[in-house]
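User: I'm putting together notes for a lab meeting next week and I want to include a structural view of one of the chains we've been expressing. I don't have a solved structure, so I'd like a prediction I can at least talk through. The sequence is below, exactly as it appears in our construct file.
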Amino acid sequence: MKFNNIKIKTVQLFLLGAITVATTSSCEQDFGDMNKAWENKVYAPTIPALFNSISASMTDISGNGRMKGSFIYQATQLAAPYASSGYRMDDLAIGHWTNYYTALANARKLESVIDADPNAAKMVNLKAMLKTMLAYKTIHATLMFGDMPYKNAGKAYDGADYYRPSYDSQSEIMTSALNDLKWAVDNLASNAGQNPVGASDVIFGGDIAKWQKLANSLRLRYALVIRGKNQTVADAIIADALTKPLLGTGDNYGLYPGTIASFTNKRITDFTGNSYIRMGSTMFNAMASNTNDDGSGIYDLRCKILFEPNRAGKWVAYPQVPTSSTPNEVDGNYCYQESRLTAWATPLPAQNYNYSPVNFYYADDETMPVLFITSAEVNFLKAEIYARGIGGVAVNPVAAKQFYEAGITESVNFWYKRANSAAIWVVNKPAAAPTPLEMTTMLSNPAIAYNASPAIALDQIYKQSWIALFHQPYEAWTLKRRTADGTPHVTILNVPVLNKFTYPNTEKATNFENWNAASNGNDNISNKPWFMM
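Assistant: Thanks for the context. Below is the predicted structure for the 533-residue chain, given as C-alpha cells.
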C-alpha cells in the first residue's frame, strides 16, 4: 500500500462538531503544506490522507511551547520562572483540545473506511498503527484534562446526535485506550499477507517491530500511571508487557525532522517572549553537589548540554522560591537571539542575563525530535517495577540497580549524541558519547550511586527519570502526579497546584450541559483527575 508523503491538504475534514473549533494549533511545528490556507472544497476521505493527518497530529505530543514555559516547567520544577507569564491557561489549552479531537474524528472515519474496504483483512497492521497512535493521543489528552468526551466524540459526520457528546470518566477512557494498545501489540505482524506501508509510514517507515515495541512500551508506562487506582488491572498489564518486546538500547521513538522532509521542530519561541524560565534551583541541586558558580559541583553530564552559564560565565540558578532580596533578571531574551550563532561571546554588557538559561543550542536546534517514549524511560519503569516488586515480579534490588543505571546511561548517551549531531552547535560542543570513565564517575557519585535503602532507591529512580524527561515535560508532569510528588521539588506557597488543564472556553459555551455535569460547574487546575485520587 503506497501512501502519500506527510504534506497534507485533506487533514481537517471531520471535526468533532460544535465542541471543536475549525483550526488546529500547528504554529509550533512546520509540516509544509499542512499549514497552507484552508480551501473551501469538498474532499472524499481516503486512507492515505486520513492516516497521514493523524501521523502529523502526533507533533502535539511535544506540547504547546507557551504552555510548557508558562505552566509545565513551573509545575514540574524542571526549570524556574523568573517572572509571571502573561499567557492564560484556557487560551493555550484549546490547541491541545482541538488537535486531539480533529485526530479522533479522522481516526474514526479512517477505521470505518478500512472496515468497508474489500481488502480490510490485509490492513490489520495499518489498523494496529492507527490504534496505537490514537490510544497514545487519547491517554495523553485525558492526563491533561481528566474526564472528556470519548465514546460518542468524533462522530459529527453521523449526525446531530453527536454534536454535543457526553463526557466519559478518565478510568473508562484509559481502560479503552489500554485495550487498544494490547490489540495492537497482539495483531501487528510481519507477513506477506499484509499490505506493506513502507516508507510512506513517516514515523517508522513500515517497521512493524518498532510499532509493536512502541505500543507495548506505552502499555508499561500507562499501567504504572493507573496502578494506584486499579492495581489488579495494572499488574496484569505489567506482567504481560514484560514478556513482550519493549524499547531497547538506543531506541528513542518519536517524530524526527531529519527523516521527514517537510517537518522542522521550531522551539526557540518556547523559551522567549512570555516564557520566562531559567535553570531552577531544584534542577541545579539535582545535578550538582554544590552551587558554586564556577560549576565545580556539577556531576551530571547532562547539565552543560541542557543549560549554560549566565552572561558572566557563572552557573547561577534562579531560586524556585525567590525572596524579596533575589536579584531580578535583566534581559530575558538575549540569550536566545539568533546572533549568538555567529557572535557567541561578543561583549554586549547592556544585554545581560544574571541566571543560567536553557542552553541556546538546545533551544534553537530545529532537528530535535518530538519524542513519544525512550529507552531511558523504559529502563526506569523496569527499575521501579523491580524495586517495588509489582506486576507479578518479586522485589529484586540487583535487577532494579541494573535498569536504573541503564536508564541513566541511555539518557546521557541520547543527549551527547543529539548535541554532537546538531549542526548549529559550535561552542563547547560535546563529544558523540561520554567516555567510559566519565560515565563510571557519574554513576558512582554518592548522589547517584544506587542506594541499599529501598525507599531512597525509589526516590533515586524517580529523580533520574524526571531529569531524563526534560525534553518531555508533559511526561515529567505525569510522573510527578502519579508518584504523589515523588520527583524533586520544594514547596512553593501561594501558587495553585497544577493537577489538570482547564477545559477550553468553547467547550463551556457550546457543550455546557455535559461540561457542567463533568466539572460540577467548578473547572479548576487544582482539581485532581481520577488517576491522582
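A couple of points you could mention at the meeting. The chain has 17 helices and eight strands. The radius of gyration is 23 Å.

User: Perfect, that's what I needed.
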